[in-house]
Amino acid sequence: MMRRGRRLFLMLAGIILSGMTLINSQVLVESIAAIVGNEVVYLSDIEEMVTEIRLRGEKTPIDQLRCMVLQELLVSKLFLDQARIDSITVSDNAVEGEVNAQINNAIRQAGSEQVLMDYFKKNMIEIRRDIRKRMVEQEIIRQVQGVISEDVTLTPRELKKYYSDIQKDSLPVIPARVQVSIIQLDPPQNEENKAEARQKLLDLRAQILEGKSFSMLAVLYSEDPGSAINGGEVGYKLRGELEKPYADAAWSLTKNTVSRIVETRYGFHIIQMIDRKGDMMNTRHILIRPKVKPEQEAKAMAKLDSIANLIRKDSLTFAKAAVMFSTHKDSWINGGKYVHSDPTNRNTWFSLDEFDPEMYAKIRELNVGEISAPFRTNDENNNTVFRIVRLDDEIPAHRANLKDDYKTLYDAALLEKRSKIYQDWIKKKIAITYIKISDEFKSCDFLNQGWLK
Asked: How far is Cα 249 from Cα 271, in angstroms, rounded to an integer?
């Protein structure tokens, strides 16, 4: 049940709740669903969460859903009550980035700030306050859980027992994984291509200033497929969600005015301000990427072919060639070793479906230690580049085992151990905490697990 509750808790992380107030009274009033220590669960909290979940398509019967929400809120209040006892606090500033992201996401889902305010019958100041409070509470709960499980480790014996207790046909199938190294070249004489892209945008900007529709020209010419179909409109974004040059240029515009040409890692843009609300702005843009000429492609391919031949003849190591020639910023310093771009997952193992089609096709042709022929592909910013790739190592698809998947199994076993510790802590905390539940909810089955006193 704890696993299920944890999933529900994460799912509800972005839901906007009405304010919660600490009270010292241990007498239930009409608007209160439960008291947990010094924490309160209001009826309005439950109803807002239930409404939000139902709007997302949840088909669970309403009474059962209310009980599920109440259980999750009661558990969270146990952790918050413990935080009060342990003097664990979190400042509003610590969660401001998450607050902005939640508000932005809520506006996108609603369609506009006005729709969002109408739905919750609150203004944006109140909505921001409620989201910030929820984010602070979630961070406090995370810290309390960290204290509870800070000394929890897993011995090799425990991991082996965890693994042996799993039925072998229930073990997950781990997809094939590979380690690769790359050498990348950007198109030669790319400044010419950039100049041509800028000129095309200058021509389009002139047409807009003469009265042509920005939206129409975006549909016809923009090379951003995500926004071109909508006339270049990108939707409401926080400044921090946009590329800095783009955000700086957009923020300087007044409504309906058009920027000068702006360069980002994605190419060149002209931007039109549609609307600005508080910390958010809605813009449209036209993106033009530099185009690579056939002779430039041939030159890059020939250079990569020469580099690959030197490596195959042992005249040059792959690592040294990567340092000398590669323009791929994430890998050249590591001798070409390809690494996940996610800063929280900087490992070198990839499943094949994580590569773009061109990389995928080349890797599939290789045996371990072989180097591909040069090929054209797109980098992480969707710009044209040229590469050779070496297959460094490979683990075929297989059922999880301790030899090949030690960390995956270790993390799963540790998570299970921590979950059991949280369950035990919750049972003990319930036993020593003042708890009162409204009669309206006393039919919820989970309350028989020690909540009713």
From this structure: 8
Predicted structure pTM score: 0.65
Averaged pLDDT of the chain: 88
Q: What is the pLDDT of residues 389-435, one digit of tens each?
A: 999 999 999 999 998 899 889 999 999 999 999 999 999 999 999 99
CA atoms within 13 A on the CB side of 230: 11
What structural domains does the chain harbor?
A: 2-153+412-448 (1.10.4030.10), 177-187+293-399 (3.10.50.40), 190-288 (3.10.50.40)
Distance, CA of 441 to CA of 33 (rounded, Å):
8
Residue among 403, 354, 402, 352 at smallest CA distance from 176 = 352
